[in-house]
Amino acid sequence: MSCSWGTELWDQFDNLEKHTSWGIDFLERYSKFIKERADIELSYAKQIRSLSKKYHPKRSREDESRYTWCLAFAATLQQLNELAVQREELAENLNTQIACELTRYTQEVKTERKTHFQDGRRAQQHIESSWKQLESSKRRFERDCKEAERAQQVSDRIDLDNKTDGEKARQTAQQKKQAAEESRKEYVTSLNQFNQDQHQHYHTLVPVIYQRIQDMEERRIERICEAMRSSAEAERKVLPVVSRCLDVMMDASEGIQPRMDTQQVVEVYKSGFDPPGDVEFEDYSATMRRSISESSYLDNRTEGRRHSRKLWPFIRKNKLLTLLSSPRQPPPPPPTSPSPGGVANSPQSPPPASREPITQRLNELMSSGSRTRKQCLRSLKRGGSGPADCSHLPPEQRRKKLQTRINNINEEIQREREQRDALLKMREVYERSPQMGDAGSLEPRLDEVKQSLQRLDEELRRNQAWLSEADSRLSDHSSRRQSGGCGLNSQAMTPGSSSLKQLDNRSPASRESPDGSYTEDHSAELHFKSRSSEFDDDFDDEEPLPSIGTCKSLYPFQGQNEGTLSMVEGELLSVVEEDKGDGWTRVRRNLEEEGYVPTSYIKVFLDASAKGAMTYI
Fold first, then answer.
1. Out of the domains of life, which is the source (predicted)?
2. Are 481 and 507 in contact (CB under 8 A)?
3. What distances in angstroms separate CA 372 from CA 49, 260, 320, 600, one per listed residue?
4. Is the pTM higher than 0.70?
5. pLDDT, tens digit, for every residue of 498-534?
6. In 18, 47, 74, 480, which residue has its Cα 20 to 30 A from 67's Cα atom?
């Protein structure tokens, strides 16, 4: 059914004007809706992208690349980032393809509507003007007719009474009659003109104008329909990508393998040590007096530590405050004429006024950069960087560290070889075509690549040798554990047996130093094994650093500042930390007193394992 506004709504000009105005308002409101929706999509995309960036794994966390649940979460965050990209694309399409077009079309519709209703008003004014002219001629005709009728009545009445006045009245009546006739003709003309104008208005002008308004309204509605369809199509366009992202998330969640992750924990943290052996029986019935001498000093130190040391699994490793208390002043020079018992003649440590408090050193440490602070903390905790062969690590971790280093070196060698091959090909091209470039300009770069390859090859051979050594030691530990287990059980509870023999039969787990380092030197193992045999019930005490040797004081020293230790001439002390170049050596006495003494005042006897480890620092 087809309906035309020109024929059906010929008398609803005002209502059509209101309806079309409301339609344009709706068009503007829908355009605003599209803009706000695009802004919401864009804001949502930004929030999703920010959330994904916030929880994305940091490069410094290597653990997150080992476990399947971390990889699944990383994949989820990556797909969320892709979803944010799709939302941004949807927002851009809504803004550029729909909102902007609707805004432009709204202005066009407003202009067209204004033109159509101006034409309608002009037609309405014309028909109203024609009607007013008709009404005016009609009233004039009516008035002239009434005046002519009255003049005729007066003329007839006067004619009967007076013939002279009757003639004059007849002439007046005749004039009124002629005027009425002229008004009648004018009225007829106006009536015909109005009828003609009215017919043209309601059958020609109004239908054409209203049809144009109807066409404009239909185009407006069609444009809204297209905008809604376009918005749906824009969202449907990103649905396949969204669905694919969700599928990837589902695949990532299904790829989580708890058993593999738990096995990976074993691979990461396995040390290769055996659990600690049984605690030895100590016979206190046989009392003996030990003289203080250089040969028996280590036994006294071991005996005194048995009641305060803890087994290595319970050891704390936070030594920051103790390490920060190291004296910063240069040590005093040794006396020119030492006095055997002269404590009064011993040089004094630097005056207290030049002492630097711990808080100041902490402030200096914390005010440095994060990278420098981390290196300083590691250096303070471990006494410097670890050896190049990773001998400070447990056996299993050492093997994995060396294997990772070898893999990285192989990758670097491969990259350098590819670069070398590219440079050689470029040199051949330059030699064949000198106009393309100078072949000699590539020689410095080739020499640099060759030197880099030689350096990498040397590092590779060195690390491979260390890896072979670590593998052989792991195999030795394995065979020793299988062959020496029975002998350990048979002698563990025998009172009075030799402590050195029992220590030799113990498992390799006690070869780990209390701070987590590892050594293969058997003489150093004797010190560490005796310390880890028993532990005290008080776990709140701070674990002391391991000893790396002994020292004998050459001169007396009176330590008065914070972090220093007083000593007498000829006293035997345990060396905890070597001189780092500042002239001070960290020593310990009887597990209770610990501090720094001038290096020039003592004679140091380092253990063999400590000497080997220090060669790599």
1. Eukaryota
2. yes
3. 32, 37, 15, 31
4. no
5. 333 343 444 443 444 434 444 444 444 444 344 444 4
6. 47
